[in-house]
């Protein structure tokens, strides 16, 4: 029998202890993660987790032409085509429950190519789709239009479903259409998408070589914001240019939100929020709901959960813990960060934050939903104050010169 050399014995012994050490460290980390996950679950049972933006309704239009009889939302869509083969699909009721999501703003979106054409009709159809989807699952979902309604749905164990309109072109330059959307349940309007409206500049004008159309909000654009304040509709500044952000902040009497944006200082995408705007947002009382799309997070095609944490921490550092939330943008992106693959993964994000002594349970509660509920309630308070002051609906129309050459789909007869 061959005797091992002493050095071989030392190597084998060292390898054994190294393997044991790695196992012990891994076990310890797993225990720590599970402990943090338990804290997260406790917090999210007490406080509703609210996501500011999900594009599932547009995917239903894209894949199923809005025909809900073919949509099996209560099942795992990862096992059902076309969802199972699409990089754009991240949402179903099972995974929402697993992710402990209590409230979701569903996007009623019409593409920029519909501006001055059928944007209003498309948006109405998407609102109708969201309402029909909720009605199909009354045991699991509830249509919600108030801050109190979010908390009530959370207590009853139902997913509070809210409607957000993504793009000011959807109102067809009409305050009457804006009011109608509100009556149908829409509770925020994103002032632009990736196209200018006749009354507001989008983020594209901030990119190198681009020329602003207006330089922010036009006078009619300020009326849109003012009417939203009167209605109690949240002003959403995702997708808008920096001058539009500043004009809206100067105009709005209520807090505003960014429903799905991140920090410009970390990733200099025109879709993100610069620090000087974050400081103004803090004074306004609003919040940034952090998006997960890698191009907004890492300025590339790959990102991780830790990259998203960096954006949350930066916004907290600049604006304060009361001014940050979550607006992932699932089902509207074809790339997601590692560790945040779908709507089931939110608890892991909060658990990662709790690894730092900087974050307390109360801080996590604010990020998850308390901040958005506060903003929503303040928007409702401003509405009530303006009503008490006797403010009437704004009955002004957009100046004809603002839409000159783009009114080919408008009735040319008498207008108010």
TrEMBL record:
Residues 1-30 form the signal peptide. Its cofactor is Zn(2+). The keyword DNA-binding does not apply. It is a lipid-anchor; GPI-anchor. The keyword Disulfide bond applies. It is found in: Membrane. Keywords: Dipeptidase, Disulfide bond, Glycoprotein, GPI-anchor, Hydrolase, Lipoprotein, Membrane, Metal-binding, Metalloprotease, Protease, Signal, Zinc. Its EC number is 3.4.13.19. Coiled coil: none annotated. It comes from the Eukaryota. It is an enzyme of class 3 (hydrolase). It catalyses: an L-aminoacyl-L-amino acid + H2O = 2 an L-alpha-amino acid. InterPro entries: Metal_Hydrolase (IPR032466), Pept_M19 (IPR008257). This is Dipeptidase. It comes from Aedes albopictus (Asian tiger mosquito).
């Amino acid at each position: 029998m061959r005797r091992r050399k002493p050095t071989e014995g030392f190597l084998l012994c060292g390898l054994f202890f190294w393997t044991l050490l790695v196992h012990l460290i891994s076990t310890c980390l797993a225990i720590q993660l599970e402990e943090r996950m338990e804290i997260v679950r406790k917090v999210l049972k007490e406080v509703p987790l609210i996501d500011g933006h999900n594009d599932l309704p547009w995917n239903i239009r894209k894949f199923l032409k809005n025909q809900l009889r073919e949509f099996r939302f209560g099942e795992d869509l990862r096992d059902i085509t076309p969802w199972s083969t699409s990089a754009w699909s991240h949402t179903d009721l099972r995974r929402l429950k697993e992710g402990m999501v209590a409230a979701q703003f569903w996007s009623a979106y019409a593409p920029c190519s519909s501006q001055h054409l059928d944007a209003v009709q498309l948006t109405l159809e998407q609102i109708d789709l969201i309402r029909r989807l909720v009605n199909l699952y009354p045991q699991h979902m509830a249509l919600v239009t108030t801050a109190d309604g979010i908390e009530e749905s959370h207590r009853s164990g139902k997913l509070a479903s809210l409607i957000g309109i993504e793009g000011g072109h959807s109102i067809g330059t009409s305050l009457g259409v804006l009011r109608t959307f509100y009556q149908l349940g829409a509770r925020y309007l994103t002032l632009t998408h990736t196209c200018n409206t006749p009354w507001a500049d989008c983020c594209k004008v901030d990119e190198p070589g681009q020329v602003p159309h207006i330089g922010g909000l036009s006078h009619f654009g300020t009326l849109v914001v003012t009417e939203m304040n009167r209605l109690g509709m949240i002003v959403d500044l995702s997708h808008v240019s920096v001058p539009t952000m500043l004009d809206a902040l100067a105009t709005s009497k209520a807090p505003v939100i960014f429903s799905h944006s991140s920090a410009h200082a970390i990733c200099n995408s025109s879709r993100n929020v610069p620090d000087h705007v974050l400081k103004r947002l803090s004074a306004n009382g609003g919040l940034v709901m952090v998006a997960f799309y890698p191009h907004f997070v890492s300025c590339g095609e790959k990102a991780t959960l830790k990259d998203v944490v960096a954006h949350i921490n930066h916004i907290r550092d600049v604006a304060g813990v009361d001014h940050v939330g979550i607006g992932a943008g699932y089902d509207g992106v074809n790339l997601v960060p590692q560790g945040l693959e779908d709507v089931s993964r939110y608890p892991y994000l909060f658990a990662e934050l709790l690894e730092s002594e900087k974050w307390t349970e109360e801080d996590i509660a604010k990020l998850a939903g308390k901040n958005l509920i506060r903003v929503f309630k303040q928007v409702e308070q401003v509405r009530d104050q303006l009503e008490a002051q006797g403010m009437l609906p704004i009955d002004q129309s957009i100046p004809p010169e603002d839409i000159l050459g783009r009114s080919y789909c408008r009735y040319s007869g008498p207008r108010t």
